[in-house]
Write a structure and sequence with these properties.
The chain is α+β, with helices and mostly antiparallel strands. The chain is 27% helix and 20% strand. The strands form 5 sheets. A 3-stranded antiparallel sheet has the order 8-5-12, with no helix packed on it. Strands 9-10-11 form a 3-stranded antiparallel sheet, with no helix packed on it. The longest helix is centred in the middle third of the chain and has 13 residues. The structure holds zinc ion. Zinc ion binds next to helix 2.
Length: 188
């Protein structure tokens, strides 16, 4: 049986990522690992277009990975992992399980390099913020749980980053540690 037939039968003639039956194609996962059907998936044109062109990524389409990430086929899981990494879906990346060998394969294209999956904090100008940076508030901000207002123009030195949320940093204003939204600050 040819690789194409084998993959088609394995997949029940459906896209192995989203279950669609439209415009299916047996696709060899890059870079090729030359292990026949093992290295291929059956995929629809919608999935394939987005796999090949990150600019076309439509996050809504990839809810399908909730199911396909549990596939019994490594090729499917590798592709699911890469798409999750590309979308920085850390919750799901923590859940998907790949054997060491498949994990290396998944990472072979550089998708999900540390930088790509890491949460990046940016100020109001899109400048990347790092722990220890100093920022200035660009807006009067009420401080949660107090009557204090942190005034526009206030300098906040030695910020720390919220590692769960790219929109939040923390820093001291008037001796009080407060949470600040990144879009209201400017790096100095
Ligand atoms: Zn598909």
């Amino acid at each position: 049986m040819s690789i194409v037939n084998e993959v088609q039968e394995r997949s029940d003639y459906k896209c192995e990522l989203c279950n669609s039956t439209d415009n299916l194609k047996v696709y060899e996962i890059q870079p090729p690992i030359n292990r026949g059907a093992y290295g291929n998936i059956n995929t629809c044109s919608t999935c394939l277009e987005q796999i090949e062109d990150p600019e076309k990524m439509d996050a809504n389409h990839w809810h399908c990975l909730n199911d396909s990430m549990w596939s019994e086929h490594d090729a499917v899981k590798v592709m699911a992992w890469r798409m999750l990494a590309r979308q920085k879906s850390q919750d799901m990346l923590d859940m998907i399980y790949l054997e060491d060998e498949a994990q290396k394969w998944a990472e072979a294209t550089g998708e999900g390099d540390d930088d790509a999956v890491k949460i990046v904090h940016k100020d109001s100008n899109g400048v990347t913020l790092q722990a220890g940076d100093s920022v200035v508030l660009i807006k009067d901000l009420p401080v949660k749980g107090s009557s204090m207002i942190a005034k526009r123009g206030t300098a906040v030195r030695r910020i720390s980053l919220d590692h769960e949320n790219a929109e939040y940093i923390e820093g001291k204003v008037d001796g009080q540690q407060i949470v600040i939204i990144t879009k209201y600050v400017k790096k100095t």
